[in-house]
Give the backbone structure.
Amino acid sequence: MPVEQQDEKRRDSLVRSKWALLISVIIFGICMALYFPFPNNPTLESTTTFMSFPIQNQDGYILLGIVGSVLFLIAMILLVVGLKKYHVRSIILVAIGYAGLPGMLTLMYQETLAGGIDSISYYNNGDCNFEYVREDLLNGECSLVLHNRSNQEVTFELEFLDSYMGEGVRMESLMNVAGPYIITMEGNSKKSIHLEKSLDVAEVPNHIEGGTSSDVHIKISHGGKTRKM
């Protein structure tokens, strides 16, 4: 039997419904497009997530995120329906691929076509620490690493965004009291950023008295364009 016929026979032995598999792939594409994590991260303000979908934030449930989650589960069901065997293995591989593909596509874009702040990568590796000095005065210290993937020098303004703590509590954004922070990065370079500031929080309502946070969220901006990461 020719090799081509053997391959076709092997594929037929795995596939129960080509239409189910095709629709599954289309739905996966729609799901990814709904909350693609570039140029901004859509899950920053969420308190509950499923895969890449923000399900709930401090204001309540997010309808589009719920719809995306349902579509994702439907796509998984169609994947199982479309295959005759290897169901568990296929689900695991697809879930891993779905989680990793957006990052790979973003990286490819940043390495080839992106310019300005679009070329900046950040992997939520930042941490901040706030120490009480006296009433209305804190010592704030934050560290993070950014990567400029373009060949050109990039300059931007860096701000810190609060993680969700409930009741509008101010923490990481307290660093902005001593800002703005103007950052310049050379082309194709990584930069470790360490900021240590005395923060007068007398005019800042609902602020913390001290604490530590990790996976810090940031906003970078330049020329009217902003990115939240």
About this structure: The first strand starts at residue 46 and ends at 50. The mean pLDDT is 87. Residues 87-112 form the longest helix (26 residues).
